[in-house]
Amino acid sequence: MERISFTEIPQQIIGKLLDLENVINNSGINLKLLELMRLRVAQINGCAYCVDMHHKELKSLDETDLRLSSLLVWEETNYFSDKEKAVLHFAEILTRLNGKPVSDNDYEVIKNHFKNNEIVILTLAIAQINTWTRLMKTFQIEPGNYKVSR
Fold this sequence. Notes:
The chain has helices at residues 11-25, 31-45, 48-60, 65-70, 82-95, 104-111, 116-139.
């Protein structure tokens, strides 16, 4: 049961979150890659609303069913590029920090595929989806109603 509706969240807060989302989405980093990362973080956090949303976004970007169903076990497949694997690894590390710093080895994984400014954007994108999942899980926004707007 929904505790707080999306429309009850102060619009100045939603507006700022959406502004940051637009900066991330228009940063030049591939949108499909960002959406893969968002879906994986939503899965880790168990956010049904965000899983529904990012699954639908990826389908609208022509993502395959095989890759979507295999995202939970991405490390065990050959369906993802090294660059995608680096982002998924980085997203998992940042989502599961548990008070620990990112190790040099884990940082090198992402550094091998992205420039510093792109790592900044990816870090913000991962923080952003973690923020959204926490909002949706706390307020229990009902999943299943998201519509892709492209």
